[in-house]
Write a structure and sequence with these properties.
DUF1682-domain-containing protein; alpha+beta; signal; about 375 residues; binds 2-acetamido-2-deoxy-beta-D-glucopyranose; transmembrane helix; 10-stranded antiparallel sheet
């Protein structure tokens, strides 16, 4: 976000500079006596916004056609670029739709709405959804393309080396394996991931392995998990420097710190696949990676077997991480119980108030004994 703001500033000031230059030329032309150094100092000192208004105001008053022409050309350029960008987006999404749809159809009984795979709200949003497969509840994904229509965002993409990519998230069946946190990400993302993802920062740590490329950073919480995940064939993919699998995560814990103890525990497999320039070869590679991701769904549920002590460690780590939440949950349960008991007592006392004196005396006698007994049993429990 900051980078975008910076780049926008740069772009704005260069537009302002251009406009100022044009005005200067024109002024020189009309008046013939404006010293050029005046305009040289104008652009860099004023803020971008100030420079723009300073530049535009004299333009209009002087009826400066050159600058107007420049601005109109710029506007036409932006519009044309927008249409070009969305056409390119659309054609790219059509190209990638075919292999993605084939792999989804091979694995899921219901893909998209039954007719169409990508839900295309606009050239910018391409989502897909599939369900009906063993070991998982559903899969959803989206394609992230470059914001081609937007010169500033495009510059930003180039600067950040943002790739076009396919992100897919599969919600796995709950009870088929003991939950763990594992991730493989490129080095340049590892700092952000290790800091921003709640599951990774609380449960996993960076682990080293000579089975993956040096530019890949692994996060895991258990040696059994690490070795068995890598044995799935993942290490071959991660060892390849040019692999299209950018990021992969397996997690049973939310990515953001839950706000209450009633948070949803879901097991998820998430993958980010880079989409290169589409060629027969690259399309085949994307397909293979996607197939591998679905194969992992089976592998995690069917093949990964952790030793009992590993499972105990995972459970303990979760108990520890959610200790505070467990305490809050217990407190809430106690409070609710106390409230129902108090309410019951209140109703009972109301009934007693309506009783005849003799009856009431009997009730009070009984109640005293009851309370006494309760006190005693409490004391006994405390002593134990
Ligand atoms: C192309 O897609 C990206 C995201 O996938 C989006 O940010 C951009 O706005 C789209 N371009 C157009 C012209 O719709
Ligand atoms: C998933 O698709 C691949 C081919 O793309 C196929 O080999 C595999 O058997 C499928 N798995 C399931 C569970 O349908």
């Amino acid at each position: 976000m900051l980078r975008i703001a910076k780049l926008s500033l740069v772009a704005l000031s260069s537009i302002a500079l251009l406009a100022t230059k044009a005005v200067a030329d024109e002024l020189e032309h009309v008046a013939g006596e404006v010293p050029p150094q005046n305009t040289e100092t104008k652009a860099p000192t004023g803020g971008p916004a100030g420079a723009t208004t300073a530049a535009v105001a004299p333009v209009l008053s002087l009826g400066n056609y050159k600058t107007e022409a420049l601005l109109i050309a710029l506007a036409i350029g932006l519009v044309a670029n927008y249409f070009h960008g969305s056409r390119k987006n659309l054609s790219l999404s059509k190209i990638w739709e075919k292999p993605i749809s084939e792999v989804l159809h091979a694995n899921f009984s219901l893909v998209g709405d039954g007719k169409q795979v990508f839900e295309r709200d606009s050239a910018a949003d391409m989502l897909f959804y599939a369900s009906g497969r063993r070991h998982c509840k559903f899969a959803q994904g989206h394609m992230v393309l470059k914001a081609r229509q937007d010169a500033i965002a495009l510059l930003n993409d180039l600067a950040a080396n943002n790739q076009e990519r396919l992100e897919i998230e599969i919600t796995l069946n709950d009870d088929e394996f003991s939950g763990f946190v594992f991730a493989a990400v490129p080095q340049k993302r590892s700092k952000a991931v290790g800091r921003d993802r709640y599951d990774i920062s609380t449960l996993a740590k960076v682990v080293s392995s000579d089975k993956v490329a040096p530019k890949v950073v692994l996060f895991s919480e258990n040696g059994d998990v690490t070795s068995q995940m890598l044995e799935s064939g993942l290490s071959d993919i991660l060892a390849d420097e040019r692999s299209l699998l950018e990021e992969i995560y397996v997690s049973d814990t939310p990515t953001e710190k839950p706000e209450s103890h009633e948070f949803k525990r879901e097991k998820k497999l998430t993958a980010v696949i880079r989409l290169p320039e589409p060629t027969d070869e690259s399309i085949k590679k994307v397909r293979e990676i996607l197939e591998f991701v679905f194969y992992l769904v089976d592998y995690i549920s069917e093949t990964i077997t952790l030793r009992p002590e590993a499972v105990r460690k995972l459970t303990k780590a979760r108990d520890e991480a959610f200790k505070e939440f467990a305490r809050v949950a217990e407190q809430e349960k106690q409070d609710a119980l106390a409230k129902t008991l108090a309410e019951k007592r209140r109703i009972e006392l109301e009934e007693v108030a309506k009783m005849a004196p003799e009856q009431r005396r009997k009730w009070e006698e009984k109640d005293r004994k009851k309370q006494l007994k309760k006190e005693q049993s409490k004391r006994v429990r405390r002593v134990r």
